Amino acid sequence: MSFRGRGDAAMQRCRLISASKFVIFMFAFFCEKGTADLHADGEALLQFLNGLDATARNLSWSNSTSPCYWHGVECTPQLDNVVAIKLPGRGLYGTIKEGTVGSLPRLQILSLRLNHLSGPLPRDLLNCTGLRKVFLQGNDIVGSIPPFSMTSNPELAVIDLSFNKLSGSIPSSLSSLPHLKILFLQNNTISGSIPSSLGSISQFNVSNNNLNGTIPSSLRSFSNSSFSGNVGLCGPPLSSACPNTTTVPSSPSSNPSIPPPGRHTPSVYHSQAKRQLSTSVIVLIVIADVAFLFLMSACCMFWIQRRNAAIPEQGKEKEGKVSKEKGFPKGARDTDDSKEGYGSAQEPDRNKLVFFHGGYLTFDLEDLLRASAEVLGKGTFGTSYKAVLEDGPTVVVKRLKEASVSRKEFEQHMDVSGNMRHRNLVPMRAYYYSKEEKLLVHEYLPLGSLSTAIHGRNESGEAALDWQSRLRIAAAAARGLEYLHNSSSKCVHGDIKPSNILLHRDFDACISDYGLAPLFWAAANNVAAIANRMVVGYRAPEVAKTRKLTQKSDVYSFGVVLLELLTGKAPAQTSAEQGMDLPKWVQSVVREEWTSEVFDRALTKFNNIEEEMVQLLQISLACVSSSPDQRPDISEVLKMIRDIRNENDLNEDVRSPITTTHSSSPQEQSLRDSPAAAYTVIQVPAAQDMEVQQQAQGSPIVKDEELPGASPSATTREGRLASSSPGDSTSEVNTGHVSPITTVAEGADSAKRN
Ligand SMILES: Nc1ncnc2c1ncn2[C@@H]1O[C@H](COP(=O)(O)OP(=O)(O)OP(=O)(O)O)[C@@H](O)[C@H]1O
């Protein structure tokens, strides 16, 4: 190699070394920068935590680990910056200080909704240029709304500051936000007027504030409920017309040459006419106008006074009904709470689910509203929905109807029922109380109810339940009822029937709706009306007279359930076919010594069970004695059932409480893999399921209904519990997406495939 050649090679090596050094340097620089950024973010978050009350310490954020692994914190894919803080419903108290979340340069999502945060919003949120979604609803935040704008936060798409204590006006800078889709400011004390344009907004609510002025025409497509509760607001969609617009005659008002009405007095406005009229005529007209106005206001005041004096209570009730019809509460102020003596102390808990057993960690009210929902059925006290929560459990939400129960009564009831834990009771997860809406949230049991199991048939027309399964269910339900009766509060169930006995793996059974009937019963002004709504065939005869639900009336109902297990007939069926209720029919057949005639034909194929069937029949007949005193206690009933078969056969060896259903699919999968899989296969499809049950109970068949708050297009059997609640997931806002749900029919189909 020549000298020159060697020199070139050396030069090349030098270049290569310099290039690689540069790459390494840049890499190190960026790594260090990334680490430094993340470190700064971590510091800001710890500062935020410092501004909160001590209970927030259980978030266990510590700078010994990367903030990207802290609970409720999300980072960029490169793990170099914090992009989201999601701590909804964590019971956080305190203020969000300047220099904390507002100094996270790449923050996109701030979700601290449903906490107890107070103080003003930090202005440095205006430095978060990537901010897309702000969920701070349901706190106690004061002060004014930061002037988010195109220059400070160009990406902002969702602002939910509803249910706080914000004041000041709505910043006009919000008009400049190009991506703003959702603006929820309801239930604050915001004043002033609404900015005339708000970009391409698709969900909007400013109800229950102190706003005034005309509703801008760009927002008139939103419904009345988006604006109601602002005394000073006027114009469509509200029924209160704006004073200036009413005086403007319709034809000239559209003429752009006419000056804007608000800036001119009527006399100027009618200047043409004025020139032609004499002064005395004008004076007369003015006097007549004033007199007319005076007369109208006097009439109005008189009418209002009369109405208030005569029917105050009725008025309140009507108010409640009106908002109830609107569906899920989306901003209605719960004004009557304070009247019940639940004033400011309860204020922070409004619009929050109250959880039992620490369940609040899993989901909150908004998740529920967002969940896709399927009507499971309509019962005596309301409609039940299966709600599949995004990344959360599948739950059943019972929306109580006409529940004129005071908050106090309701909460007392919940304190008792919500804290009951037994393997044979459907676990209650949470409840929600407001004047308009009362919700109960239970764990979802995918195997359906005893009603479906008794009356459903498989493809070859055979009954779903064999004899051993029926005995197991009887024992399990008796165990659940015994727990209720023997609890310290000596509960009465009040509505024992097969649709309130839900099946679990291995034909274990859980009782649902415990204590609901007595709650309604006690609160009802008209007990007879409630009694009539309840399914008659299971109600003890004395209840109609005494109007009291007792443990002995529960035993009677349980006896009817046992008879239904034995005969395969529902009370409504014997009433229709034999003209008498189920206990009377069984008693008459037994009296005539045709005992074997009463048993379900589907059971005849099982050998050596007649003796056991007769034993269970005797127990059932004791339970349905017409005299309450002659009925055994539920503990005795359970003992007698246990005497029929040994513990193992009755599935009594399993002591663990039932597990939480975190999502429908793995649970349903494990059920399909279980020995009870055969049952899953012969489940009737959902629609049929409801009909079978309602026919069995003798109630009118409930067809699919539109879900509260769900758009009619959201489908008949599925939808959301509320359509307008924004999501704070990283997915795009307002997709209107209804996630697919697995119907019971689909479940059964896939079970077949398995
Ligand atoms: N936790 C649950 N898991 C699965 N299904 C449920 C659950 N709770 C209720 N269901 C089913 O939903 C349907 C409707 O129940 P709901 O309790 O609203 O009415 P009901 O039991 O028919 O009457 P009632 O209101 O008088 O108790 C029933 O088929 C019931 O078995």
UniProtKB/TrEMBL annotation:
Compositional bias segments (type: Basic and acidic residues): 314-340
Annotated segments matching region Disordered: 244-271, 313-346, 648-674, 690-754
Biased composition (Polar residues): 657-669, 712-742
Matches recorded under InterPro entries: At_inactive_RLKs (IPR050994), Kinase-like_dom_sf (IPR011009), Leu-rich_rpt (IPR001611), LRR_dom_sf (IPR032675), LRR_N_plant-typ (IPR013210), Prot_kinase_dom (IPR000719), Ser-Thr/Tyr_kinase_cat_dom (IPR001245), Ser/Thr_kinase_AS (IPR008271)
PROSITE patterns, alphabetized: PROTEIN_KINASE_DOM, PROTEIN_KINASE_ST
Pfam entry (one): LRRNT_2
GO terms of molecular function: ATP binding; protein kinase activity
Compositional bias per record (Low complexity), positions renumbered to this chain: 244-256
Keyword annotations of the record: ATP-binding, Glycoprotein, Leucine-rich repeat, Membrane, Nucleotide-binding, Repeat, Signal, Transmembrane, Transmembrane helix
GO cellular component assignments: membrane
Family: Belongs to the protein kinase superfamily. Ser/Thr protein kinase family.
PANTHER family: INACTIVE RECEPTOR KINASE RLK902-RELATED, OS05G0588300 PROTEIN
Protein name: Protein kinase domain-containing protein
Organism: Ceratopteris richardii
Lineage: Eukaryota, Viridiplantae, Streptophyta, Embryophyta, Tracheophyta
